Automatic annotation (TrEMBL):
Residues 5-300 form the Inosine/uridine-preferring nucleoside hydrolase domain. Keywords: Glycosidase, Hydrolase. This is Nucleoside hydrolase. It comes from Saccharothrix lopnurensis. GO terms for molecular function: hydrolase activity.
Amino acid sequence: MTTPLIIDTDPGVDDAFALALAAASPEVELLGVTTVFGNVPLADTTANALRLRALLGREDVPVAAGADRPLVHPQPHLSSAHGSDGLSGARGTLPEPTRAADPRDAVTLMRELLEAADRPVTIVPIGPLTNIALLLAAHPRLKAKIGRLVVMGGGVDVGNTTPSAEFNLWSDPEAARRVLVEEDVPTTLVPVDLTHRCAVGAGWLADLARTSATGAALVGLTGEYLATYRRILGLDGIVVHDAVAVAEAIRPGILATTAFAADLDCSFGPNRGALVVDRRREVERPPDLDVALDTDLDGLRSFLFERLSSLGGA
């Protein structure tokens, strides 16, 4: 039986790979895609999601736009890693969508999909957590319909936007704290400590580009993203953060997790947006956040390649 899946996203190059992975995986039924501000403004994340949906031949999946700013305080700046349009300036290389964005907002779409579901739904938030915080605040009764959240975000020992904070959580710390700390929905967190280790090299990308027109189109979105990682990490490749989280949603247990008590720094000091993981043996609150810290790296990369290379022509 397939797992019903909703992806909440801010495309984003790695988001593109994540959406493609979901589309290529028969274990999941992609019910809907919701968009949020993040790597680029909401209008761009939504336009990118629509074009990616067209590339993947999944015009049947509704795409609904959500929050265009954080719950409380403005996002200080956007990500520069993904280029001006979020897809390395290559959005125009993707097919024009044949279906517009859903007229419903993201929270309404998620609510209606959850209400209609006949089995627990996995939600994979791979952008700022604003839409998810709004959903849980407005419709707490629907928590029972959510099987699990698989969240890409946070850093246990390192950040990627500040020394201690990862971009998704840093973009809306108040929303992130609501979801990760205050709610009781089963949650797996996929932090940058692990996703950086799951990076794929330029050779891996070149091989993927040769598998199909769709694979080539995905790799064609990586130009500025590749340049960023060469500059900041000396990496001849890219970090596919969000695809790692989607892999865990498709194949539960592909990532090794440990339960921790955690909090989120919402102060205005240098650690704003940082995940605070309590690794002591005796803690004041229960260790209820499953944090993914390890995986079979070669096995994960092989899984990603196998699925993405199975996509047909664009």
